Amino acid sequence: MKHLLSIEDISREDIERLLARAESFAEVSGRPIKKVPALRGRTVINLFYEASTRTSSSFELAAKRLSADVINVKSSGSAVEKGESLKDTVQTLSAYDPSAIVIRSPHAGAAKMIARWTAASVVNAGDGKHEHPTQALLDLYTIRDEIGHVDGIRIAMVGDLANGRTVRSLTYLLSKFRDIRVCFVAPPQVAMRQDIKDHLDEHHVPWVETQDLDSMLPQVDVVYQTRIQKERFADEAAYLAVKGIYRIDARAMSLLQKSAIVMHPLPRVDEIAPEIDSDPRAAYFRQARNGMYIRMALLDRVLS
Ligand code: NCD
Asked: What does pTM read for this prediction?
């Protein structure tokens, strides 16, 4: 496993190894000294061409906790603003002999493209409306950690399923497990795209689609809420037409099973009411913390 470009590249065996490794890093993170020497002398470059808080900071911290040297390059404040092409930036950074380049880009396929321009391992940290494989891995880790198993779960994916990349990668990933049932909850304007539905059909994963969130809440183990992706709408009116359409609040929580959880890749805007943050079923901040363990496991795996 040299790169992680798409969740489709990764086998069930690789997934199990990564989850186990992430668990061991979660243990290390509970100690007073959180650093291990695994990647001493290696360099990781984080190339972020789109807004990020969790993914960029957890990748940086993951690399540092593995003792790698880290460089962070963002589009704002870099030569990108002077008109430098992605290819030139990647070729320049590659001249510093990094072991890995972690890339976030507004363009689908960007990670795959740069893997052709560098000898470094390339990790996709989100490419446009396409995929976000490390998010899917941390989501999977969270489901297993919170529910105890992945096989057999019922999950509702809610919100902007057409523009959100996390739900796409998570659906690909869950289709590698047994007895999964998926419900897509979205208005028609941002319904899950056909390629993912076809993928589920090919893998014999039953799925349904509805606009009625309330009817699904009592039936699922996981509610995976997502943000309406404002930046990916062509115009403001189209965004406003779906903004705020589904909100998980105390009333919605009263419909959910006691053992169910609410996940969200974050950031949230208005789709989860802060009043539910203290509900033990609200798993999204624990989910964010798991991102660091998964990214440690992943960097360790692709670089060792
Ligand atoms: C997500 C993303 O960037 O796709 N954020 C994240 O990485 N946790 C979700 C989003 O932006 O809504």
From this structure: 0.97
Catalytic residue status for 40: no
Three-state DSSP state, 34: coil
Which of 266, 269, 294, when mutated, tests ligand 1's pocket best, judged by the most ligand atoms within 8 Å of its CB?
266
| 262/248 Cα distance (integer angstroms) | 9
58-62 own/partner pairs: CB under 8 Å, 24+ apart: 58/288, 58/291, 58/292, 58/295, 59/102, 59/123, 59/125, 59/134, 59/295, 59/299, 61/292, 62/292, 62/295, 62/296, 62/298, 62/299
Q: Ligand 1 centroid vs 184 CA: distance in angstroms?
A: 18
Indicate the helix (H) or strand (E) that contains 142.
Answer: helix 133-147
Task: Tell me the pLDDT tens digit for each residue of 106-165.
Answer: 999 999 999 999 999 999 999 999 999 999 999 999 999 999 999 999 999 999 999 999
- Beta pairing partners, 103: 47, 124
**Does the CB atom of residue 165 touch ligand 1 within 6 A?**
yes
Is 303:100 a contact under the CB 8 Å cutoff?
A: yes
- pLDDT tens profile 61-98: 999 999 999 999 999 989 989 999 999 999 999 999 99
| Catalytically annotated residue among 3, 42, 43, 55 | 55
246 Cα: distance to centroid of ligand 1 (angstroms): 18
User: Virtual CA dihedral for 138, 66, 50, 188, nearest 10 degrees?
Assistant: -10
> Between the CA of residue 23 and those of 131, 155, 251, what are the distances in Å?
24, 23, 34
The DSSP code for 192 is P
